[in-house]
Amino acid sequence: MACGPNPYYDAGHHQKLNGNRRHLMSALADSIDDLVQRLCQKRALQRFELKEIQKVSREFNPEGGVSTLIDVLLGRDETVFTKFKQCLRDMDRGALIDLIEGRGSGSHKATRCTCTVTRNITEQSVDDTGDTITSSYTEQYTHQSEHEAGVYKRVGCGQMREPDYSEIWIPNNENLVTDFKYNLGEVTGRLLQGFVISDDDVTTIKRITDNVDAARKLVEILPLRGEGVLRKIIKALQPKYDIANILDQQLKELMDKVTV
């Protein structure tokens, strides 16, 4: 028996999604879990689809999770596509809506972005005679990466979602301070480049000359940068920092418990 045409096929939104698949994969990778949860709440996704997208994100990479979501949306009607855009708007990602509505199949050139973070450090120590010795030095970290024009990102705001905050972030506070305190220039540079923190956040950290206090302040700021900030932090700091790998493993274990 011959199969008829897909009643949900809409050439317009297919072009918008497929034409911007690569850009959407890059822009939504750091918030895919938040997005699919919102879509599920709006009854735009079924539970088994939610679990499949989460599984791909967890076992492969978040970009693959976004691509799987796009495949699901391609099989849905305009109503679901509208709900998808509503979720983006609720997540303050209106620029992505402009992108998919304005350039369905346009190509974008990659641009190189350079980020430099400089901190003036003052340290004190006591010599054998009991005299206090003060030394000063400048720590500088420069990070370069390529971003595609037309993919818009911004620093998030709001409290890190539960149970990420209470079950992962809080128990690892001291480990985070330990990993950050000797590498603050590089860590803040990576987080700034990954749109996790803002220039104002970096300025706040730079004003604190004691490395431990500065690291504690950073650990205090980070969970206030959006519901899905934990995954963004992990992505910005992997694979170099052990604490990022620990957080990643704990997040995977937590998601396994939630989806069982």
UniProtKB/TrEMBL annotation:
<dbReference type="GO" id="GO:0042981">
    <property type="term" value="P:regulation of apoptotic process"/>
</dbReference>
<protein>
    <recommendedName>
        <fullName>CARD domain-containing protein</fullName>
    </recommendedName>
</protein>
<dbReference type="InterPro" id="IPR001315">
    <property type="entry name" value="CARD"/>
</dbReference>
<dbReference type="InterPro" id="IPR011029">
    <property type="entry name" value="DEATH-like_dom_sf"/>
</dbReference>
<feature type="domain" description="CARD">
    <location>
        <begin position="9"/>
        <end position="103"/>
    </location>
</feature>
<dbReference type="Pfam" id="PF00619">
    <property type="entry name" value="CARD"/>
</dbReference>
